[in-house]
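Collaborator request, handled under Task 6.
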Amino acid sequence: MARGGADAVIAAAIEDTDTAAVPDLDFEFDDDSQYETIEEAIRWMISAQQDPGAFLHEKLVWFWHDHFATSVDKVDFGQAMWEQHLLLRRHALGNFREMCQEITVDRAMLIYLDGDGSTADAPNENYARELMELFTLGRGNYTEDDIRAGARALAGYWLDWDNELSLEFDEESAYQGTINFLGQRGRFRAPEIVDIVCDQEACPEFIAAKLHQYLVGVDPTPERRTELARVFRDSGLEIRPLVAEILTHPSFLETRMSRPRYPVEWLAAARAVIGLPDEPDIWRYEEMGQVPWQPPNVAGWPPGNRWLAADQMLHKLSILQWTDVDPSMVDPEDPVGSILRRCSLWEVSQTTRDAIQKGIDTATETGDDWFAAVALATAVASPEFSLA
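Structure tokens returned to the collaborator:
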């Protein structure tokens, strides 16, 4: 942990060299044990997110998984999903254009958005649409004609299902003519389509605004959005400088308690505070509605206050109900203060303080020796702990 306060921590996060960004491991997704291995890979990803030394890189890995949302439920091929995960890990703080180029011909993405088997005679428009709407430009910055043209240019990729899903490009099934795409005319293939999209003025603005919303919890002002887009564009769509500009701006520290913790984030924090098992239980994430490789749709998990809803609170309390807590975690001389410090809660309402104290008093009056569990459960289920 960096010393010197919040600014030093932020600087250390930005300067992280990501030496362990891509793990030196692989999984054997055999036909007979495919689903068991998929669960093993998901548990590894959860553990990586919860590693106290994960820092900024893991947070960005999760962001891009949510951004380029792909579900194993449809892909149903663990090796392809794992390779996509490694792709996102490599580029999490790297170059957006390069990541977009690779994800466009990624095997899991080709399956998920039906690029596999798309031909010039019958082009599938799903990826062309989502490439512009969700991945790079946002609505209003392309036309239906651009979608149709893009789909033709992206046709020709096949996965050989009889040969371990090897990726092939069939020139004969690809479109041979010229197209008009986002104001340019030519004979384009996937690399040119991605370059044209990334060169659009809307691209750095769209990505900058989405990253700001993810990291800060609120949309940037129009002026701030323009500033961030300029930084991103001038860097050649390098992600780290954009993240640095967001995190080092005064508004980042000034805008506190504005962003609900995603379930994966809340569970990581709760595990650190209470001591959840080292081997992550996927059912905990299923209960709260967020499991890696299982987004609800191509738009990913929705941001916002839905993660503060009453059903989320009930799931949190049910998880805590079955967790053993070491009483030594709480200082009996200053139970409320020690709990808040353990939870890194420095700004809490009097209502939260009173609720923790009431839990302690109730447990003590019954003569039970589980006041620590009650007190910690109250703290981690508090509104303040549910916000980042």
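The cover message to the collaborator said: "The chain has three domains: 6-198, 202-254, 263-380. The chain has a mean pLDDT of 89. Please let us know whether this matches your experimental observations."
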